[in-house]
Amino acid sequence: MDFDRITTENWTVAFPCDWIDKSEEDGTLYFSSPDGEKGFYLSLWLMSDEELRTPEELVSSFQKTEIESFISSNEGWKLLKSEINSSELPVVGYWGGFSESSMYRISGKQLAYGKLVLRATFHDYYCENQELSKEYLLQ
User: Fold this and answer.
1) What is 11-45 written as a DSSP string?
2) Alpha helices, DSSP H only, in 48-95?
């Protein structure tokens, strides 16, 4: 499979080359599979010079906000996993959730290094098999 890449000084994100760029005007990048069943949002945040939180604290804050936003307990969502690896830089956070009633899997990944935070959110809008979805999008 051929991949396209988005590369910065610190990170490279690879995705299938047939995915469609449906980015929004606010600067958030969004790519969708050709059939529209999968997609991912990608945004890079440059924190202000006044920001005093460590990369681990930034990842924790982003992750908490994302989970509260995406995993709604009243809609049958289940948080499957939430973790932060701060043993090396960049600090990496990951979370995943699933709604059995809508067959919708969503996962997020955050990377923080210095004042930069890269946030990716992966959507499997019709997830028939969670294990295949994890392999395809994000562990």
Assistant:
1) -EEEEETT-EE---TTS-EEEE-TTSSEEEEEEEE
2) 55-70
Under the banding of pLDDT at 50, 70 and 90, the label for residue 50 is very high
DSSP-derived 3-state class of residue 108: strand
Tokens of 131: 């294990």
Q: Is residue 107 within 8 Å of 95, Cβ to Cβ? A: yes
Phi, psi of 117 (to 5 degrees): -130, 120
Sorted by where each starts, the structural domains of the chain and their CATH numbers stand as 3-136 (3.40.1000.10)
Instruction: Report pTM.
Output: 0.86
| Cβ-proximal residues to 53 (8 Å cutoff; 6+ apart), any chain | 47, 61
pLDDT in tens, 67-115: 998 887 667 899 999 999 999 889 999 999 999 889 999 999 999 998 8
